Amino acid sequence: MTSHLLLLLTVLSVCSASNPPQMCLKMSPCGADCFTTCDNPCQCDLTRRGHLSFSFYGGLCRDTGFCELPPPTLQQCVERTGVSLSQCPSMVSEEEAVSRFTEFNYRVDVRSDEEWEAGHSNMSLHAPGLAVNPAVNYQHLWDQLAGAKEDSNILVYCRGGNRALSAALKLLRYGFSNVHSLHSGGFSALAGRIAAHSQQLTPDSQPSKAACYIAGGSNSLCPRPLPISHIHSRRAFKNRAENMQLVDVQSNKKTKSSVLNKAVRVPNKTRSIKKFLKTLRKQKTLVLYSVEGDAAFSAAKRFIKLGWSGEIYFVDNGGYKELQQMGF
User: Which fold has domain 223-325?
Assistant: First the structure.
């Protein structure tokens, strides 16, 4: 995240306040307070140092400090009225979020702890308070996003839409460029629609991948998702899946050289798969991969239905190529 580092170095060069909080430095050239007041709390000598550009933040450079323009409202961002495209994140409807839920690199839930405990997606990152007190709450999210690219595809949601927009605007200021905000409905409605869609599938196709992203391992028919975006190194991969056995579910037409080191290829026939599963120790964690993820997800569900009762993951939004780059 090079630009994040450059931003921090710039902040340190223009701000003279003594030891401002590290998370505040990520908020603006002078710290978090400069976004809410014009009394120059960080004592940045903007005029003496010359013409500093704060256009990325949509703010104004004044003698007294850095002043934020009024944030766009939910209605303005949805209708694109009275605001420029650069002022708003990409606004996502509930219908679009249902169809694309598993495609996002990260799903960020900014509801309160109480709302989260009442029901949440196991594949979402929880950042309560990010919308209202970002300097305090960003550290936890930052730790979860460690290694994330600036153009990572991020969906932010809450209960109704306003907190999601506020948090999404904060992420844009942190340097993320591909931020989406759910503007209609919220998690409960979204989860309900995903569950309803999953139940409409044929018995052989149930549950859907999106339903498994929400249920995680709590649904006995769901393999655990392992999106490439959540894994940044071979060590991080192994920390998530201890004692793992990589299983290649790519087409057998591919050459043996395409199989990752120490991975095994799954046979095609059902009878052969049953024998194959018996040869694997039950205490092993199976991690299935293909090229993108759909084939791995389908194969993992098939393993479960054929009697596999141990831990089982499927690599999603990537696969063979990305794992190979990690050194497998």
Answer: Oxidized Rhodanese; domain 1 (3.40.250)
